[in-house]
């Protein structure tokens, strides 16, 4: 038998790929038109916050559902509506998916914060800023924080 006379045998197999097998970016890329790109989100506790551009608004429901399913600990997905009009720099939220619950907890710099995301200011402090703020406070009043941060028995 020569080289050109080789026999090949192919077996077929079925591979099932489910939603759980895809990562967030690949799912969004698969469902959105190729000329649109979802950029990013932020998370505070169980709330995922997006700033969707106008061209993504027709897809806000599917984007919200995907984020709800794929982002860990997420129970609420919101989009900022329009600009900031209030004196206190609050903004209106559009619930895209999940619970209508804007009170959440987050831990930053070792301190637990509870906040109402619907009433927070638009310039939410970045986690690294919490660390430096926390350290500055601890430097100013070291004894007081030592007693106040211990659980009471």
From TrEMBL:
Q: What keywords were assigned to this record?
A: Cytoplasm, Methyltransferase, S-adenosyl-L-methionine, Transferase, tRNA processing
Classification via SUPFAM superfamilies: S-adenosyl-L-methionine-dependent methyltransferases
In the UniProt record, does the keyword Cytoplasm occur? Answer: yes
Question: Entry's InterPro entries?
Answer: MeTrfase_TRM5/TYW2, SAM-dependent_MTases_sf, TRM5/TYW2-like_N
Q: Name one GO molecular function term.
A: tRNA (guanine(37)-N1)-methyltransferase activity
Catalytic activities: guanosine(37) in tRNA + S-adenosyl-L-methionine = N(1)-methylguanosine(37) in tRNA + S-adenosyl-L-homocysteine + H(+)
This protein's source sits in the domain of life called Eukaryota
The record's section on Gene3D superfamilies has:
Met-10+ protein-like domains (3.30.300.110)
Q: Pfam families annotated for this entry?
A: TYW2_N_2 (PF25133)
Annotated family:
Belongs to the class I-like SAM-binding methyltransferase superfamily. TRM5/TYW2 family.
What is the name of this protein? tRNA wybutosine-synthesizing protein 2 homolog
The protein's organism comes out as Nippostrongylus brasiliensis (Rat hookworm)
């Amino acid at each position: 038998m020569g080289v050109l006379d080789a026999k090949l045998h192919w077996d077929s197999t079925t591979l099932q790929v489910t939603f759980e097998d895809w990562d967030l970016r690949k799912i969004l890329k698969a469902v959105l038109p190729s000329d649109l790109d979802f950029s990013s989100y932020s998370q505070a506790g169980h709330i995922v916050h997006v700033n969707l551009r106008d061209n993504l608004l027709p897809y806000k429901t599917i984007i919200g559902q995907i984020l709800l399913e794929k982002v860990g600990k997420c129970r609420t997905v919101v989009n900022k509506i329009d600009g900031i009009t209030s004196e206190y720099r609050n903004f209106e939220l559009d619930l895209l998916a999940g619970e209508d619950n804007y009170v959440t907890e987050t831990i930053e710099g070792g301190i637990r914060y509870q906040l109402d995301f619907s009433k927070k200011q638009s310039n939410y402090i970045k986690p690294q800023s919490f660390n430096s703020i926390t350290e500055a406070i601890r430097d100013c009043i070291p004894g007081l924080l030592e007693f106040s941060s211990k659980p009471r028995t």
